[in-house]
Structure formats: structure tokens, C-alpha cells
Automatic annotation (TrEMBL):
InterPro entries: Quinoprotein_ADH-like_sf, WD40/YVTN_repeat-like_dom_sf
Lineage: Bacteria, Bacillati, Actinomycetota, Actinomycetes, Actinomycetales
Protein name: Uncharacterized protein
Gene Ontology CC terms, in alphabetical order: plasma membrane of growing cell tip
Region forming the signal peptide: 1-32
Length: 341
């Protein structure tokens, strides 16, 4: 069973979040809505089944997960894991905010690194052998690790990573070529060097790169590099980047050197701050995707933007918090509690 390495991360609680395939509408008004296409009709994209698979259970919350082969690596805030179908409190095994299971059978695996605080983000190296962790913790496997660290996918033992953060890490992403680890959050320093809420680490030499945009407040929640490696996008609750809020409000696109692209990324969707955030950004050959929530802003849902101009190609304003988005060919999957599409 082949699955993308990273899928629908940030699922908060299965009972509260719906996962669905959405059809995005053009950003500009349409003359009339076409008749709905019957399910299974010719031309309808194939989607994954909604059939439930056996899934290991935890006694807390999962904030992020990554799939490597047939193994799901899940992180968050929890202290025990139990087999699929087992009632709460029964057949539990201790875990320290990280666990793994087989995606086909639900079997709980022995992989069990431990931290002394919440893990917010996980990302896999290009070869799948190393897993990068970021969060609120200060120890990893009982050794000092300031909010970011690495472990082996095979056994959960620590792997070298030359990074430490002075504040919360909320986002991790590996570049398409596997050479760069992007780090986002609420920190102001990485390795005692000034980095305002976003940074990049060269995985070959374990050194910070010169990528150093200045995110003015709040936090970065998600990062992605363009498929062709030409740009980097971030999403979060930040209200401006280097003093600019258009673009730079909740979502921003940068050149590889960290220069902000002066485009239309924040012209239509404008929501950030204490009660709004772009929760997820993803990329494919067609563009940049984003999922957001907003109590007082202009948009809740998923959208696709042009990497260069920042213009919105499509959007689904579904009036419900949207936590994640995954483009998969002709289908876009969203994790949300949308209620008015």
C-alpha cells in the first residue's frame, strides 16, 4: 500500500475533525453552478475509501504524523498506547509522546523515543531513515534537546542534529531534494543565532543556512518548499513579515534567500493573530495549497495559490476550521469541520 510520506498531519481528534475530498471553486464569481456530478460518474476522480482501518489508540492527543512505507509515526502529548479495539485503560504500553504502528494492521510497534514535553511536529528524511521532532520538550531520550531533535526510524535512538531552539517549535519540513530541514515556531534563536520564528538547517553539514526572514509576531505553523525548489512558503498566526502585512499576514512566500516575494498572497485571504491562522501549507506541481481557520478574518477553508503572483487559483470557503490539506493528483483532501460548502 503506497501512501505519501506525509499525510493529513495535525489531526486534532478524530471525533471532532472530518476528513474529506473537496472540489475547489474559482476565486472569481462563476455565472452559474453546474449540476452535481453523480457519484462514480465518468470523469469523477478516484478517491481513497472511507473504510476504517485498525488503528492503535492513545490516551492523549496526536499533533502530527508521518508515514514511511507501511509505518505511521505519530507524535503529540500522550503517555500510553493500546492496540486497536482495546478499551481505554486496558492493554496499555507506556510511551513518551511518540509512537508507531503498522498502517495496514494497526499493530503497535516497539518504536518509542521519549520526551519531557509535547511534540508538535515530525518530518522524515528523504531516505526515511531519520525522523526529526520539534515541540516544547527540553529532553529527548533523557538527554538534553532544546525543542528540536532527531531519532532513527528503525529503533527510536537519537540521531545527530545540530539544532536547538529557544522557544516552541511547531513546524518541520524537509525540502524535496532532502538537503534542508525547515523549522518554524515561536522561537527567536536557533543555535544562539537570531532567527525570528523560521529557520533552515543544512542537513549535510548540520549548519544553519542564511535563510532568515523576520516573522514579526505570534508563530509559524507550517512550512513547505516549492516542488521545483524555487521558493519557500510559510503559514501561521503571524500578522506581518518584516513590517509587511500585504503580503505577510498569515501566509508568505519567500525566495530561497529569505527575501519576501511582494505578491498578492494576503490580498484576499486576510486572517491571522490570536484567533486566526493558516494551519497548513502544502505544494505540488500545480501550486501552493493552504488550510486556515479564522474567527474574525476573511476565510475558513482550503485554497490554492500561484507561487509567483500569490493570486488565488481556487478556494473552498467552507465556514469551518480547516486544519490540514493534502493535494493528491486531481483530488484535494482536507481535515476540517466544514459545515457550509
Amino acid at each position: 500500500m503506497k501512501l505519501p510520506r506525509r499525510f493529513l498531519s495535525g489531526l486534532l481528534a478524530a471525533a471532532l475533525v472530518s476528513i474529506g475530498a473537496v472540489t475547489l471553486a474559482p476565486a472569481s464569481p462563476a455565472a452559474a453552478d453546474p449540476a452535481p456530478t453523480p457519484a462514480g460518474a465518468a470523469g469523477t476522480p478516484n478517491t481513497v475509501s472511507a473504510d476504517a482501518l485498525p488503528t492503535a489508540q492513545i490516551n492523549g492527543i496526536v499533533w502530527d504524523q508521518v508515514v514511511v512505507g507501511d509505518i505511521v509515526y505519530a507524535v503529540g502529548k500522550f503517555s500510553a498506547v493500546r492496540p486497536a479495539g482495546s478499551p481505554a485503560g486496558q492493554n496499555e504500553s507506556p510511551r513518551g509522546n511518540a509512537m508507531a504502528y503498522n498502517i495496514n494492521t494497526g499493530e503497535v510497534l516497539d518504536w518509542a523515543p521519549t520526551t519531557n514535553g509535547t511534540i508538535n511536529a515530525i518530518a522524515a528524511s528523504a531516505d526515511g531513515q531519520t525522523l526529526y521532532l520539534g515541540g516544547e520538550f527540553t529532553t529527548l531520550n533523557n538527554q538534553t534537546a532544546w525543542r528540536v531533535g532527531a531519532v532513527r526510524a528503525s529503533d527510536g535512538q537519537r540521531a545527530p542534529l545540530g539544532a536547538s531552539a529557544n522557544g516552541s517549535v511547531k513546524a518541520l519540513s524537509v525540502s524535496p531534494n532532502g538537503q534542508t530541514l525547515y523549522i518554524g515556531g515561536a522561537f527567536t534563536q536557533i543555535n544562539s543565532s537570531a532567527r525570528q520564528r523560521v529557520a533552515a538547517l543544512n542537513l549535510s553539514n548540520q549548519q544553519l543556512t542564511s535563510f532568515a526572514p523576520k516573522i514579526d509576531n505570534y508563530y509559524v505553523r507550517s512550512i513547505v518548499e516549492a516542488v521545483d525548489g524555487s521558493a519557500v512558503a510559510i503559514g501561521g498566526a503571524f500578522e506581518s513579515v518584516g513590517g509587511s502585512d500585504k503580503p505577510g499576514h498569515g501566509i508568505a512566500i519567500f525566495e530561497k534567500d529569505g527575501t519576501l516575494r511582494k505578491n498578492n498572497a494576503s490580498s484576499v485571504v486576510y486572517g491571522a493573530g490570536a484567533e486566526a491562522s493558516v494551519m497548513s501549507v502544502k505544494a505540488d506541481e500545480q501550486g501552493l495549497y493552504a488550510a486556515s481557520y479564522s474567527r474574525l478574518g476573511t476565510f475558513e477553508g482550503v485554497m490554492r495559490l500561484n507561487w509567483v503572483t500569490g493570486d488565488i487559483d481556487y478556494m473552498a470557503d467552507c465556514h469551518g476550521d480547516s486544519y490540514d490539506v493534502l493535494p493528491a493528483g486531481d483530488v484535494i483532501y482536507a481535515a476540517s469541520h466544514s459545515h457550509d460548502c
